[in-house]
Amino acid sequence: MTAFLCTFISLAAVLALSAFSVRRFKLASGLAPLAVLSGSIIYFFLVGCLGFLQIGGYVYFAISAAACVYLVATYKKEQWKSLLTPGFILFCLLCVTCLVVFAIRKPILYEWDEYSFWGTAAKLTKDNNMLHAAAKFGWPWAATQKPGLPILSYIFNFFGEFAEWRLYFAYDTLLFAVAAAAIGGLSIKKWHIAVPIALAALVMPFFHIYTRMIYFMQSYLSSYADMPMGILMGGALCAYYYLSRHGGKGLWSVALMLGAVALCKDTGLPLSFVAAGIITIDILFCQKNAQFSFAKLRGGAAKAAVIFTLFATSAAMYKIWSIYLSNLGVAQGSVGGEADLSPFALMLNGVLLLFGINNTEQTAMFAEKFMLVRNNMISSFLHDKVTMVGPGIVVFAFMFAILALTFFLSGDKLHRRRTVLYGVFASLGFLAYYVFIGFTYVFVFKNEAGVQLQDYNRYVTCYYVAMLLGAFALLAIGAQGGSRYRDLLTGVCIALGVCMLVLFGRFVQKQLCVVDYPYVVYDESRNLKKSVQCATDEIPKDARVFFVSQKDDGKLWFSHSYEFYPNILDYSWGGGSMADPAVMADGEAVNYKISEGQLAAYIVQSDCEYVYINDSDELFKRSYGALFQDANTLPNDEPQLYKVEVKDGYTIVKQEAKNGEIMQSGSELTLLEGEIKPISVMQNPFEYLTLVKVEMEADYE
Amino acid sequence: MNKKTAMRLFFGAYAVAILGLLMISLFNFTSDSIMFATGEIATKEYTVDDFSLKDFEKFQDNKIITTSVDPQLIIEEYNKKGTMVSIDMSFNRYPGEVCLYYTRGSEDFSLESRVWAKQRNDGRFEFVLPRGKISRIRIDPSNFTGIELTLNKFVLNPKRSFTSYFAYSGETIFNICVWPGLAAALCAWLYTAYSADNKKTKKPLDKTHKKRQNNKKRRS
Q1: Do residues A44 and A200 touch, judged by C-beta distance below 8 A?
Q2: Is B202 touching A (CB cutoff 8 A)?
Q3: Are A440 and A346 in contact (CB under 8 A)?
Q4: Cα separation, A149 vs A153, whole angstroms
Q5: What ipTM does the predicted assembly reach?
Q6: Which of A224, A268, B44, B203 is the most exposed place for a label (fewest CB within 10 A)?
Q7: In chain B, what residues touch A494 (CB-CB under 8 Å)?
Q8: Residue A666 has what pLDDT?
Q9: Is the pLDDT of residue A668 over 50?
Q10: Cβ–Cβ gap A511/B193 under 8 Å
Q11: Do residues A544 and A606 lie in contact, with contact meaning Cβ atoms separated by under 8 Å?
Q12: What one-character DSSP code corresponds to residue A117?
């Protein structure tokens, strides 16, 4: 109940600021929630970079309270009526419903990358009241990833304890705000246009599903950034098209939205630039100078100011984050990966290869991979089904069908021109984005992953979704303006809504998505959480824990490190299986061959006070059983906790590790490949190091 | 369309849908009661021996142990209508997913035709079966090997309470939220088009708009 009320306060703050921006800045009420959420992300980002995240948070909620007081004090019935638009009503209803449902059902983290970054970053931001990159953690991780969405989660977790369902709720408010923006400029009289367009927009987070799903679908229950980023970009396009009918008024909110897109993920900057480019073309060719005004400027100067603001906001977000990271001592000068190039070098080499120039050292190195990636990307666009409607080419056909109907049926010449320009430049923008993604496959991804276009649909569908949302807004505006042939465009809107709902019903089982997911979906995560809770109850808050989970592929290590926090889970070879090569029989294989002495030396040198064994086997017992006070506790189906007891007088010597063994270098561990390096080994480890079982209270359902 | 008509249409669509849903629930309750009374549906208790066991090993009367990650309890040749399955079973440790599969005809069990359990406070698993004739029923009580299952009571078609017919699933609530709104939008569109026909405004709308705008300009 406390968590529910705390989250409700955050939602109330967003609603109060939205109502305030409608009253004070005359923003369309359907667009206000998205503008406020985007502005809030940027505000918290800036105060976070200055190191005042928590203080900034209190100021934010104080401003929201003041906005509430202002709204009540200056109450006028007519002005309240301006809030009664389909967009704002939809946003309020969806947020309240979602809040109640999530507070009851309490969904928790589920997927690999949620544990390895997105969920962990949100938890670190909340627990430390600082941006995730500055927080200390037990393993080398993607600290340079953009903080926009963890910040959004922070806003909705600001009061009370961090809870994963509040993280999902934060993401969903953003998705709902975009759905509201898709109908943001429609008045209550046009509800029959708003209903189908809103439904189509709400289905968009499922757009990446391309086959009838038999497993749980996480849309609306995911903390991944790709889809929210694409949808937010689409929301910015929708907001622009609605606002542009009023000659530039309120376009500052679009700049905020694009700034928030740039803060979602590394690929957010190119996406926000593409959106800014599409908007620029529209401003240049579809806005009359005489009617255009922005920040007390008029005509061409106002247009130039808007265009500059749109690009500058996104670029500023990128630059501020880079400066912040460099102040922390974390460089963001390269894109990492195979070639470890700077973003500029990546683009330059990519463009050279694109034009067949491969005579430089780097381009020659990547020429073959480039050709393979290029062919695969062309083929994927034409043939690989990655969305509800089919491959990329069909998505374009779908968008052009919507735009063509808008063009032919719209009664407004200017709107027809706008539709054509949108179709052309959204396609060119896709081309630029697609080429950029291709370059990352060539220069950033490892050979195999790059050529196989790993996570292709995740990267590409976010653009498709944004592009379609823009088309939906143009269709709705066309229908609102009136058709040339009666109200046929309204009929197209309704057909679109039905079509999207039918596609949704065809591919997604309601029992396997947010609508009606079974409780059992989260059983595994819930049990893991409980078992870790049993362990953390027994150990001090600052204890470092060594982790063992034989046969783990890394996911359990990530999920345990998330659950153990604020206890630091040691890197511990990432949870891979290990054994002493001296006791391994023929045919037995493990990830790491580590002798008893090496393991003991590692545990002592890394200051681990406890060992948490999630999963062990006979081979583990054979290898390291002598280190345990009672080896009979191994192997065990249930997780076990052991205290590390070390006697004085041990000696650790350096030995030359053989090929394939693990070496220790500072806090990082590297698998040797052909080279010989010294490795720490404890002499007679079982005399000096003992692992004593700690009894945990069993708490299984 | 004036505001009053629009409101009537919008809320009317939802009222009709909700009323329809309540009527269907009432009909289901009545028809189930009649079928129970006529013997078309009967409450039946099953023991471990009544099932075809797949990947289970029996070691006591009502105790079985799973021998694979896909153990199944199958009721073959049921070929009747069903209402609900209620299972009182306990496990020696966490069993994983508990779900029920059903078939309508001679086809194989499919991932498309399955139902998940709602666990009651007393530990019972309850599955609401879909309406219509069901050929075979399969319970997958676990997805781990070595789980000891004690089947205390398995009841097919237990008497359902009147209120249970009105406990709607998330899917039903979703449909009742979405489709009436869309239907109302469709009706509003058709109504507008129909009333425009009645007024015999057969000229394209953009021209009429222009005329109206010109008239306004003249007046001003």
Answers
A1: no
A2: no
A3: yes
A4: 6
A5: 0.85
A6: B203
A7: 182, 185-186, 189
A8: 37
A9: no
A10: no
A11: yes
A12: I
